[in-house]
Amino acid sequence: MKKLITTIRNIFSIDDLRVRILNTLLLLVVFRLGSYIVLPGIDPNRLEGASDGILGLLDTFLGGAFSNASIFGLGIMPYISASIVLQLLTVAVPQFQKMQKEGESGRRKINQYTRWLTIIITIFQSTAYLSATIPAEAILIDRAFFTFSATVILTAGTIFCMWLGEKITDKGIGNGISMLIMIGIISRFPGAIISEGLARGLNGGLLFLLELIVLFFVVMGVVMLTQAVRQIPVQYAKQVVGNKVYGGQRQYIPLKLNAAGVMPIIFAQSLMFLPALTAGLWANWSADSELASEVGATFSDYTTWQYNVLFGILIIVFTFFYTAISINPKQIADDMKRNGGFVPGVKPGEDTSNFISTILDRITLPGSVFLAIVAILPALASVAGVTREFSQFYGGTSLLIMVGVILDTLQQIESYLRMKQYDGMMRSNRLRGRSRNIAVAS
């Protein structure tokens, strides 16, 4: 406890870090306040809550802003969609590949395209959002005028959220976009704990304590999944330049066990509505409507074993897919060869590329299986009797995002603390006395 208090004191003793933390907290408060401002022309008492599936997942990411029909109803999600589209284009389209290799100017162009694509996606998503989730009886003004004005407001709200995320990245601590998603998820955690505790009551206090213990070990497992790496040793040849010798050092290429992060779960979750949709169309076109209705009901319930088996398979497939487009073993091998590096015992070039690919496949398979297990844990918790709100924190996208963002933020804070220790060494008496001796000798 004393060490924790000392660490907190050291954090706030650094001026730059203290200002960044305060800026982050202020911008997050602004984001949360906007989540409770309802769109003009809506009676909030007549709104329906978000349903299960992808809509419920969006509402979890946005901290209730989606079901509240707030001015931040779509939040940062259109920007996430645009970023994913641009990332896929940099793999499939040569023009975007060339743009990515242009350095800072290329990144600025890609960011500009991402912003414009965000506006386009937000306009389409806001129109669908207004027509599909807001009941007609909740609208107090003319429907056409409401749709136009609400679309403009939702688009402006998404752009403002994007600006908040960029400001957090520049003036605050952590990745701004990820912080906005994380704060939306965490905002629902206290209410989920309270509702679970009330549901258990006094007689279920021991069971509630057991649930918290299980949640603790699940979080530790997700931390291990996020932090686990396989290090590939790389030896650099010595080079003599003038009178100095460069190189000769051994470094490591860290390959993460879960290189794809949370993206496979998001991709798989976005496709899980297709079986129910296909079953609904089948019921309309086929004479065997009873079977189609049964299939639709099965894949509309996220707690059925059929749903979770398909969900897990999709996650494993998308993990391999996203890892393949994120890590290019051939490019890594070419960069190593160009810089005079080699893996001990492996020939540079194609053999190194095949060696890295083999290791990547071996660590991706258990990583993808573990990721699939984490993704279906909320369904298992719900079947075990945990309330739906609290079960969402037993795994899935919510827990992975929270753990990833918190670890990334803590690493940035730790880097500031290390810089402070380095400055303290530069101001130490030993170095100051050494500088005095040098001045006397001169």
Automatic annotation (TrEMBL):
SUPFAM superfamilies: Preprotein translocase SecY subunit (SSF103491). The keyword Ribonucleoprotein does not apply. PROSITE patterns: SECY_1 (PS00755). It is found in: Cell membrane; Membrane. It is a multi-pass membrane protein. GO terms for cellular component: plasma membrane. InterPro entries: SecY, SecY/SEC61-alpha, SecY_CS, SecY_dom_sf. It comes from the Bacteria. GO terms for biological process: intracellular protein transmembrane transport; protein targeting; protein transport by the Sec complex. The chain crosses the membrane at residues 21-39, 71-93, 113-132, 144-165, 177-194, 206-229, 259-285, 305-327, 363-386, 392-410. Keywords: Cell membrane, Membrane, Protein transport, Translocation, Transmembrane, Transmembrane helix, Transport. The central subunit of the protein translocation channel SecYEG. Consists of two halves formed by TMs 1-5 and 6-10. These two domains form a lateral gate at the front which open onto the bilayer between TMs 2 and 7, and are clamped together by SecE at the back. The channel is closed by both a pore ring composed of hydrophobic SecY resides and a short helix (helix 2A) on the extracellular side of the membrane which forms a plug. The plug probably moves laterally to allow the channel to open. The ring and the pore may move independently. Belongs to the SecY/SEC61-alpha family. Component of the Sec protein translocase complex. Heterotrimer consisting of SecY, SecE and SecG subunits. The heterotrimers can form oligomers, although 1 heterotrimer is thought to be able to translocate proteins. Interacts with the ribosome. Interacts with SecDF, and other proteins may be involved. Interacts with SecA. This is Protein translocase subunit SecY. It comes from Catalinimonas alkaloidigena. The lineage of its organism: Bacteria, Pseudomonadati, Bacteroidota, Cytophagia, Cytophagales. The gene is secY.
